[in-house]
């Protein structure tokens, strides 16, 4: 088969692929950041939401049939996708469809796991009649060319391909770890093992599952039907489906290094599960570095999103005692730095920092207003907060922990509900009559 035939086969396979971006989870380790919206809808990198990354990867890879199953507090997520991802042409069978949990099976249950979320939509999947199903997590930040992964799936003759990121052995203890032979055939799958198996040819690193899978459609249907009938199953791909396939089919590990989109040839593949407050804070603030690990300025692999129309960021006052300035920071549209100093921080859209305040190493989510004379350091400030004048955060950990949520790394998470509680009178004790 010549190169033209190979390219044609891959193009046909891409058109025959249906991507499912699983976006129904809360992401409880993000604490109060997901009190009102699902983890895939959480803002990231100044103007995006986490779900924009797998969706953009699909578009840039040539996959234009996409479904997004949703469940937990999905209003923000649904609104974002409707506003920002409605540019597809149904006439040529392109779409991004939202699949809210609808209790479509006889059990009339909500999605009970990642596999069940797909199983409950089997009738809709069959109606689209894809050849391949690409399963994606809607809550990870990375850039990957899925067409390369699909090409590997086709070339290997696999029934299932699992995308894996290479991690140091010590870090692998917190992941689902894939054990593979020298030909990348998966021979074992262990969930958070104390002694992870190393990857072929490198005793210092292991394969961690990214929660990204390609299935041949008929094969997946049979698996899901059997799993649904198993009362002992958690109905989850990582816990049940993939481990249960060991030795039963052609199961292949795909290395992220073979399909990662890099800014430079020697750059490390970038993949982050921003599922904890510390990881979320760190990944956002990495973007203010001179050379961040995630290059959002790469026009060859753009990240798409809903583009809200906002005025440019504004910096006002240039007096010795108050100077509106931001250094080593990202400042998004609609922001006003009014006589305040911002250092090493990331400000999302429509943030205002008022006079005589200092914000350092802090992630400030959209719509927040920081009052005068505040000193904020090493923090995440949630959506639409009204930070009172004179608030000091990041200088007294014990005090911060009594008022807000402080992580192991000392990052303080602040939400509007927490700020409102500061003004609430302490409950009075009631003496017995």
From TrEMBL:
Q: Name the SUPFAM superfamilies for this protein.
A: Nucleotide-diphospho-sugar transferases, Trimeric LpxA-like enzymes
Lineage summary: Bacteria, Pseudomonadati, Pseudomonadota, Alphaproteobacteria, Rhodospirillales
Segments forming domain Nucleotidyl transferase: 19-287
The entry's protein name is Glucose-1-phosphate adenylyltransferase
User: What's one GO MF term for it?
Assistant: glucose-1-phosphate adenylyltransferase activity
Enzyme Commission number: 2.7.7.27
* Pfam families, per the entry: Hexapep_GlmU, NTP_transferase
**Domain (Glucose-1-phosphate adenylyltransferase/Bifunctional protein GlmU-like C-terminal hexapeptide): residue spans on this chain:** 311-414
Which PANTHER family does this UniProt record tie to the protein?
Answer: GLUCOSE-1-PHOSPHATE ADENYLYLTRANSFERASE, GLUCOSE-1-PHOSPHATE ADENYLYLTRANSFERASE-RELATED
Its annotated pathway reads: Glycan biosynthesis; glycogen biosynthesis
Q: Which residues does the record give as alpha-D-glucose 1-phosphate binding sites?
A: 111, 176, 191-192, 209
Function field:
Involved in the biosynthesis of ADP-glucose, a building block required for the elongation reactions to produce glycogen. Catalyzes the reaction between ATP and alpha-D-glucose 1-phosphate (G1P) to produce pyrophosphate and ADP-Glc.
Q: Which UniProt keywords apply?
A: ATP-binding, Carbohydrate metabolism, Glycogen biosynthesis, Glycogen metabolism, Nucleotide-binding, Nucleotidyltransferase, Transferase
Look up the domain of life of the source.
Answer: Bacteria
């Amino acid at each position: 088969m010549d190169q033209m035939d190979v390219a044609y086969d891959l193009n046909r396979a891409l058109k025959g692929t249906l991507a499912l971006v699983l976006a129904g989870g809360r992401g409880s380790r993000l604490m109060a950041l997901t009190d009102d919206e699902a983890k895939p809808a959480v803002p990231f990198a100044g103007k995006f939401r986490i779900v924009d990354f797998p969706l953009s990867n699909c578009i840039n890879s040539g996959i234009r049939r996409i479904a997004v199953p949703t469940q937990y507090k999905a209003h923000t997520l649904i609104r974002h996708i409707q506003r920002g991802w409605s540019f597809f042409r149904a006439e040529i069978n392109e779409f991004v469809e939202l699949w809210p949990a609808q209790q479509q099976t006889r059990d009339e249950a909500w999605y009970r796991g990642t596999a069940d979320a797909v199983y409950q939509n089997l009738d809709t999947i069959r109606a689209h009649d894809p050849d391949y199903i690409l399963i994606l997590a809607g809550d990870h930040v990375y850039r990957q060319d899925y067409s390369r992964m699909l090409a590997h799936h086709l070339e290997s003759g696999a029934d299932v391909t699992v995308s894996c990121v290479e991690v140091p052995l010590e870090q692998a203890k917190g992941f689902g770890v894939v054990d593979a032979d020298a030909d990348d055939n998966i021979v074992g799958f262990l969930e958070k093992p104390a002694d992870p198996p190393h990857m072929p040819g490198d005793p210092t690193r292991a394969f961690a599952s990214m929660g990204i899978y390609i299935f041949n459609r008929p094969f997946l249907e049979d698996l899901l039907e059997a799993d649904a009938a198993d009362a002992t199953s958690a109905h989850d791909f990582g816990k049940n489906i993939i481990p249960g396939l060991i030795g039963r089919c052609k199961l292949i590990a795909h290395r992220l290094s073979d399909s990662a989109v890099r800014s430079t040839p020697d750059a490390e593949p970038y993949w982050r599960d921003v599922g904890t407050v510390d990881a979320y804070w760190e990944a956002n603030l990495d973007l203010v570095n001179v050379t961040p690990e995630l290059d959002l300025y790469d026009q060859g692999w753009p990240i798409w999103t809903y583009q809200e129309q906002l005025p440019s960021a504004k910096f006002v006052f240039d007096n010795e005692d108050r100077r509106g300035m931001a250094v080593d920071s990202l400042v998004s549209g609609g922001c006003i730095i009014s006589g305040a100093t911002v250092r090493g921080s990331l400000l999302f859209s429509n943030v205002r920092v008022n006079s005589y305040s200092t914000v350092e190493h802090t992630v400030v989510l959209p719509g927040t207003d920081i009052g005068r004379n505040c000193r904020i350091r090493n923090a995440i400030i949630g959506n639409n907060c009204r930070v009172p004048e004179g608030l000091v955060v990041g200088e007294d950990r014990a005090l911060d922990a009594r008022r807000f949520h402080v992580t192991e790394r000392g990052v303080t998470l602040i939400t509007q509900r927490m700020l409102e509680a500061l003004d609430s009178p302490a409950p009075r004790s009631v003496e017995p009559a």
